Automatic annotation (TrEMBL), chains A, B:
InterPro entries: Flavin_OxRdtase_Frp, Nitroreductase, Nitroreductase-like. GO terms for molecular function: oxidoreductase activity. This is Nitroreductase. Residues 38-192 form the Nitroreductase domain. Keywords: Flavoprotein, FMN, NADP, Oxidoreductase. The keyword NADP applies. It holds the Pfam family Nitroreductase. Belongs to the flavin oxidoreductase frp family.
Amino acid sequence: MALEDPVSLAAHAALARRYRSAAPERILWNDTIAALLDHRTVRGFRPDPLSPDLVPTLVAAAQSAATSSNLQLWSVVAIEDEEKRKELARLAGGQKHIEHAPLILLFVADLARAELVADEARAPKEGFEYLESFTVAAVDAALAAQNAVIAAQSLGLGTVYIGALRNHPEEVAKLAGLPPRAAVVFGLVVGWSDATRPAAIKPRLPQSVVLHREVYDLAGQSAAISEYDRDARAFQEEQGQDPVGWRALVLARGASAAALNGRDRLKAALRALGFGLK
Amino acid sequence: MALEDPVSLAAHAALARRYRSAAPERILWNDTIAALLDHRTVRGFRPDPLSPDLVPTLVAAAQSAATSSNLQLWSVVAIEDEEKRKELARLAGGQKHIEHAPLILLFVADLARAELVADEARAPKEGFEYLESFTVAAVDAALAAQNAVIAAQSLGLGTVYIGALRNHPEEVAKLAGLPPRAAVVFGLVVGWSDATRPAAIKPRLPQSVVLHREVYDLAGQSAAISEYDRDARAFQEEQGQDPVGWRALVLARGASAAALNGRDRLKAALRALGFGLK
């Protein structure tokens, strides 16, 4: 890419927004890659209604993602009801955007459907009793959800994932009417961005930290992480947040079981919901 | 969408390929959604080399996906070495496409970097000892990987996920030189499709089975699953596969621990690799 090439200029600008001081020098470029790099998490939404065709569109995109052995061990519960959204906002630790946006998609790790198929055939279902099956279901739900995010963004909509629904898995499952052996892995809020609360592109760790060639290298990451810490601090200041840097976020999460806001109970909660997790 | 509208015709055709007899009547439509719906898993690759700019491009796309609390608990090990690809093909149960394509990206659930940060600060790291942290890492790796898939597809490349690397987590971790508290969740093979072995669009479950409005419904799924079973059988026949349908795939996976090809050991393997999974 020559720097005077407009494509190259756009790519450089996108990389500088995403990586700040540690941007890769060159990447391949097209409209899809431009859109992917431009992703930002939206937390300020207008209450404006969505097209009635939106949910089927997002689900068609989601179902078009790969799924392990075509087992399709995931489902979506689309919640538009205002009272339910208020309750989900509360269960997620007071995340008001769940209340403000008109739609939240609950992505479900779903072994219930597979067990229904087994039960109807009076067949054994031991294979679903393992941590592997929960892992497949959670990963497949994530692949599907990310396709929904890309589709929503292409339509001009904003999204934010809600992992905090795992703070209260049983209550969320009850609200969504889930049968045994199904659990919400995360939510995805979808709506029109509020232009008065614009979302920013969050800088990420340098590629030298995340990408390894042939062999993983841990020792070499520390200096680049420190460099990133400075970029993270600058970003936090721009956003009016406490400029604690990135290392501080990691330390806060690792500090104790209490730092998980109830998610230290995830295993017990999944077991209560009928997952074997052997 | 009026049916005579060419956009509408394209959307209908895409929905018919993805859903066969149970296609939704209408969806929103643009080039991005068209590309998402056109996804197909590629298993026939040409050995042709890839651009040296490809891996940084895919990783930039991957890092632009959302990540829980910006913790970035995932990494990629890019494997191009032919001997290593042969060994990975063997570990994945003889999946020759890993050997034939020039690149496999190993997506790593990575608590090692977070623990490095904690160790350097002499800080506690109890928060990472829970199933929650593995779940976050696996989900974030999946969100990232799916962005890489979309980017690769936009460049005309084919991909296939390799979940079977979980058949032998310790051996795969060793091959990739992973430190403790890191594990490969899945691989992603990337390469140029072999036009003599074209990939087909696999039909998915009807939306009435996967998408629920406000409340999940299990009892209503059975009839639509049977309808899908017919479409799945037709697809398998077209592909020269044994036309067993979809229910049979589910029953095979559920049949026994042995049906998991070693993945019934996933919990033990992750523990051996240093994950707490409390």
